[in-house]
Specification:
Helix content: 25-40%
Radius of gyration: 41 Å
CATH superfamily of the largest domain: Alkaline Phosphatase, subunit A
Largest sheet: 6 strands, mixed
CATH topology of the largest domain: Alkaline Phosphatase, subunit A
């Protein structure tokens, strides 16, 4: 098959031959090809509009042929030799009235590229084999504008970019592709087509690299140099690494590594080099603070996590220091997302250990312990829940992290729960069998506070939504970008025993609550089930109603409006936590988070479709959850033989007369029933009964079981309107507006969550000068969180500036660009003052 160059040359020659002059004379084309590049092609080929004669040291024959034998046909005279001097050219007279075609490969390539610049011809001639491939030619013309005015280096960079498959003809982009070329095929092409010497000259020129001209050595040098700059190692670098640390232009090495870290191939590369350096053993000899914000190697994060685990397991630490390590240093790590649950588990564990180290007074009243729990003690339960939740989400936790989880459970039980129990039990005994917390709101008075309100209202009752979960729900309501209004958090004491049938009954309108035949009656009506509760609600007002959470969430706007057309007060029953506790108690903490989201989604749905602005959220009872195995010593034996009316893990109901050591007894006459008594276990102990379910318990009188949240929301005003349909809002969170280093991190906040009319946004961020020229790398992140917690919707981006001169007196802007809409949506001015830092080029 003929080469591409010959095919192109033939087209040009045939075009010349096809054009006759005004006298319609024939055409003769002389083609000199000293390199004999096209000899085989010409010898085998024919031309439609000309005859071919090949010079073979036979000028007399050719002269005779063209001037005597055939004077009418077009001819292509091919010379597989150099053009002779005029004095030695026997065919000079014919050449004078013929066309001369100069078509060596270089000349042909020049014509194809539209070039005539002799300096560029030298470049093409040196790398002529590059142009053998049409795909490479086309790619080159896409990457760089080809013209006689272009610089020689622009052409060289363009060709190296094509060979390395870089997206831009920049040295940094070319090197990016070469260092990630694990099989070295791209670098082999650089050598094959004659660019190796030029490449290393440019690397030396722009990066000051003078080591061995091998990619492995180059990457090793840049890794170690960047690592040295981004850490402050107490033990220093191993002496064997010193030769790899660049003394000059070291910042450029750090910037280069910083910019390639966002490449999907980076994890594999850093892993390979970390193993080559045997860095893991070396890292372990240094303090975690020495690594600062360094995230060059994934093993740093692995060691930081392991070290914090170890510190927490040992039990002596500076909690504020550990919080700083996680939130100020490691949150900007590129490995944060991969190890987020480990870090979040540790962060919650730190807060847990810090909170548990408190003094619980011994001689307070029951009301004072309740108040203290809602202000102080609840945090221990909250951090305990968060730490276990994140631990459960860790894929294959390490042995050390598993040991930490055991310590958290043990300390929760032996330090917190036992201490709180020892203090609170005497206060409960001081109630003298009367379930009366004086000025504290109790659940059986709940409806009385609602009655008489003229505005339409929803009451959301979430089964087992204990106080600390309700507090977290309250906080998320306050920061939710869709909901804003007046939200107030209060609390109430649920009935004893702290179980669903008593708790739900107490929240209904009631004059008398009675218990018999295993059921709870409100003013003579059975209170089991949503239908029965609606009947009780309607005894006070025909416009009252009750409905299940799942039922109302399935309604569309038309159905909701029809449902509410004749209703003023609606109780909505949500049962996720208690239901999971009865079926799979180990998932209780996990569904607590789901419950928070369920309730927020419910409020937004009701408001957006009905514009009803008043809501109350509460629970029937709380619960206790322990991960530890319950010891036999914590169980009361011989309970079944007492023949109580109702027996459970945490309580007994009797007609009276049952006396058990280390228990509390409360008369139920405060509900309107003077026949029965509730006997509850001390602290967190349990009665020995048949059946499972020892980790998730309720029915007793612990603070976690009896305190329920009461959240009142009013005057809601939705933030979503027709003008706000579109991608979520994103803004710069970092307060700094002055840059003093070439590498730095900025935080961006997704201040609206993805939901309903708000969609995710792919954001590109970069810096430009006043002319619009980009002066930093371009970095993207996806603002796609639907989490209600604003703190989790923060993206940290590590920037590096171009290695150019910056002036503190010039204007530079941070650009926030929406990639899908292809438009800039924010621009923030910055001062760039790189004191005593000079660019390398």
């Amino acid at each position: 098959m003929a080469s591409i160059d010959y095919i192109e040359a033939k087209k040009e020659i045939q075009k010349i031959l096809s054009v006759r002059d005004t006298d319609n004379h024939r055409k003769i084309v002389f083609w000199y090809d000293e390199a004999k590049t096209f000899f085989d092609d010409v010898q085998k080929d024919t031309y439609e509009n000309a005859k071919v004669v090949i010079f073979d040291n036979n000028p007399i024959y050719i002269k005779y042929l063209l001037e005597k034998v055939d004077v009418s046909n077009n001819y292509l005279v091919y010379f597989p030799c150099a053009k002779p001097r005029n004095s030695e050219n026997w065919l000079l007279d014919i050449l004078m009235y013929s066309e001369e075609y100069y078509a060596d490969r270089v000349a042909l390539t020049m014509r194809q590229l539209g070039l005539s610049n002799t300096d560029l011809r030298q470049i093409i001639e040196q790398h002529i084999n590059f142009y053998d491939n049409l795909i490479r030619r086309n790619k080159l013309q896409l990457l760089v504008p080809i013209s006689d005015s272009m610089r020689e280096n622009d052409l060289l960079y363009g060709m190296m970019a094509v060979l390395s498959k870089a997206n831009r003809s920049k040295l940094e982009e070319i090197l990016r592709e070469l260092v990630f070329d694990f099989d070295k095929s791209k670098y082999n092409d650089i050598m094959k087509y004659g660019f190796e010497k030029f490449l290393w000259q440019e690397i030396n020129k722009y990066y000051g690299y003078t080591g061995l001209e091998k990619l492995d050595n180059f990457v090793r040098t840049f890794f170690i140099t960047a690592f040295t700059r981004s850490t402050k190692l107490e033990n220093g670098m191993p002496s064997s690494y010193n030769s790899f640390v660049m003394k000059d232009n070291s910042e450029d090495a750090e910037i280069f590594i910083e910019r390639i870290k966002n490449d999907e191939r980076y994890p594999e590369m850093q892993y390979d080099y970390s193993k080559k350096f045997n860095f893991f053993e070396y890292f372990k000899r240094n303090n975690i603070i020495d690594f600062k914000q360094c995230d060059i190697f994934e093993e740093i994060d692995i060691i930081v996590i392991s070290r914090i685990c170890e510190i927490l397991v040992n039990g002596t630490c500076d909690y504020d220091f550990l919080h700083q390590i996680i939130n100020d240093n490691r949150k900007v790590s590129i490995w944060w997302k991969k190890y987020e649950h480990q870090y979040q588990m540790l962060d919650a564990a730190i807060s847990f250990f810090k909170s548990i180290d408190i003094e619980i007074p011994f001689d307070l009243s029951a009301e004072e312990y309740v108040t203290n729990y809602t202000k102080i003690y609840y945090k221990i339960d909250l951090y305990f829940r968060h730490s276990l939740n994140h631990y459960n989400l860790v894929n294959e936790p390490s042995d050390l992290m598993a040991e930490l989880e055991k310590k958290i459970n043990l300390d929760y039980e032996t330090i917190y729960l036992s201490r709180l129990s020892r203090c609170f039990n005497p206060a409960l005994t001081g109630l003298n069998s009367k379930w009366d917390f004086k000025n504290t709101l109790t659940s059986q008075k709940f409806y009385d506070r609602l009655e008489g309100k003229n505005n339409k209202m929803f009451v959301i009752i979430s089964d087992a939504l204990r106080y600390e979960i309700g507090l977290e729900l309250f906080e998320q309501i306050n920061i939710n970008p869709v909901l804003r209004g007046n939200a107030v958090l209060d609390y109430a004491i649920c009935p004893v025993p702290s179980i669903t049938k008593f708790g739900m009954a107490s929240l209904l309108p009631n004059n008398k609550i009675e218990f018999y035949d295993g059921k709870v009656y409100v003013d003579g009506l059975v209170s089991l089930g949503v239908g029965s509760r609606e009947k009780i609600l309607k005894t006070r007002a025909a416009s009252n109603a009750a409905v299940n959470f799942s039922t109302i969430m399935q309604m569309n706007q038309k159905e909701l409006r029809h449902f509410m057309s004749d209703k003023t007060l609606v109780y909505i029953y949500h049962d996720v936590i208690d239901s999971m506790g009865e079926s799979d108690e180990h998932k209780v903490f996990q569904v607590a988070d789901e419950s928070i989201q369920d309730i927020i989604n419910l409020v937004k749905k009701l408001y957006n479709n009905l514009q009803i602005t008043n809501y109350v959220i509460t629970a029937d009872h709380g619960f206790m959850y322990r991960r530890q195995i319950i010891q036999e010593s914590e169980k009361y034996s011989n309970i079944v033989g007492l023949k109580a009316i109702e027996t459970s893990k945490r309580y007994l109901i009797s007609d009276g007369g049952i006396s058990i050591d280390y228990t509390h007894t409360f008369k139920l006459d405060y509900l309107g029933d003077n026949k029965h008594e509730a006997v509850t276990a001390y602290g967190y102990d349990t009665f020995k009964t048949q059946g499972g379910g020892l980790n998730f318990i309720h029915g007793g009188t612990s603070l976690q079981e009896i305190i329920v949240p009461v959240i009142q929301i009013s005057e809601l005003r939705s933030r979503i309107d027709k003008n706000q349909i579109g991608p979520v809002g994103v803004r710069l969170k970092s307060i700094t507006r002055k840059l003093t280093a070439r590498t730095f991190s900025l935080e961006f906040e997704q201040y609206e969550k993805v939901e309903e009319k708000k969609t995710e946004r792919m954001v590109l961020v970069y810096f430009v000068d006043r002319t619009g020229k980009t002066v930093s790398g371009k970095y993207q992140f996806n603002a796609n969180s639907n989490d209600d917690n604003l703190m989790t919707r923060v993206s940290s981006v590590r920037f590096s500036l171009e290695n150019i001169d910056f002036s503190r007196n010039k204007q530079y802007d941070l650009v926030l660009f929406d990639q899908e809409k292809d438009e800039e949506f924010d621009r923030i001015p910055f001062v760039i003052d790189l004191i005593n830092i000079k660019p390398a080029f």
